[in-house]
Amino acid sequence: MLQTPSSFTPLFAQQSDPAPLSFLFHGGRLLVREHDLALPDAATLDRLEVDRARLQPLGLYGERYCETGWFDSEPALPPGYALRGLRSLFADMDEALLGLAARAAQVAEWARTHRFCGACGSGTVLAAGERCYKCVQCGHMAYPRISPAMMVLIRKGDSVLLAMHIASPTKRFVPLAGFLEAGESVEEAIHREVYEEVGLRVQNLRYFASQSWPFPHSLMLAFTADYLDGEIRLDTSEISEARWFGPDDEWPERVPHMSVSSVLVDAHRPPGR
């Protein structure tokens, strides 16, 4: 599952390192060497005239310093380098490095969009000891944006409900999901989203797992719930299809466990399905 490796330690201050792991982005795409998906070395950063002072400290991967940043405009890349979307790297890049890249993408986008204060428009500076930008004029503080989203697998006897979300880039049957509204608990969001999207009521909510998801800055909170009552009634602006999958049904194909969604489904998949 896509996640930060356990040997990673966050840092909030820059460190000197002759060979850092440098995650550089433009338009959500990561700069990598094409033949082996390695990150650019110091010499490549020099050729690209990267402003090292603007790079953000990310942390330590073991003893290796990690930093992240962005290009304001698409760079003229050296031969052998390319910008790749993170999704396109799922099956190819080392899993630990991809987990770091997912974290780096969110920090870089936060830094790119908070160079100026959202309250008064003045410039900002990094606050000491935390990942925060502080306005030099009014003192407004801006932390990285994290958007919590609920996910729930509804169980009814030996069947589970899976749905096809209209906005899904994968077009697969998955658990129901949706973002929390201001002032909501995760549990309240689950009850609201389930009723809005498929017209059902649920009970016995149980936490399953969570996952940071960098598209662009979500925190997915996965649960299970038991069916209480109601008939499937689709919100056709959100859901194209939803149905129960039981032991005798043909289940959606297995996919690599990059997302907590596939882990949640496979934890309830009948043997042989």
UniProtKB/TrEMBL annotation:
Its cofactor is Mg(2+); Zn(2+). It catalyses: a 5'-end NAD(+)-phospho-ribonucleoside in mRNA + H2O = a 5'-end phospho-adenosine-phospho-ribonucleoside in mRNA + beta-nicotinamide D-ribonucleotide + 2 H(+). Residues 144-268 form the Nudix hydrolase domain. Pfam families: NUDIX (PF00293), NUDIX-like (PF09296), Zn_ribbon_NUD (PF09297). InterPro entries: NAD-cap_RNA_hydrolase_NudC, NADH_PPase-like_N, NudC-like_C, NUDIX_hydrolase-like_dom_sf, NUDIX_hydrolase_CS, NUDIX_hydrolase_dom, Znr_NADH_PPase. PROSITE patterns: NUDIX, NUDIX_BOX. It comes from the Bacteria. The keyword Chloroplast does not apply. Keywords: Hydrolase, Magnesium, Metal-binding, NAD. Its EC number is 3.6.1.22. Belongs to the Nudix hydrolase family. NudC subfamily. This is NAD(+) diphosphatase. It comes from Massilia varians. The lineage of its organism: Bacteria, Pseudomonadati, Pseudomonadota, Betaproteobacteria, Burkholderiales.
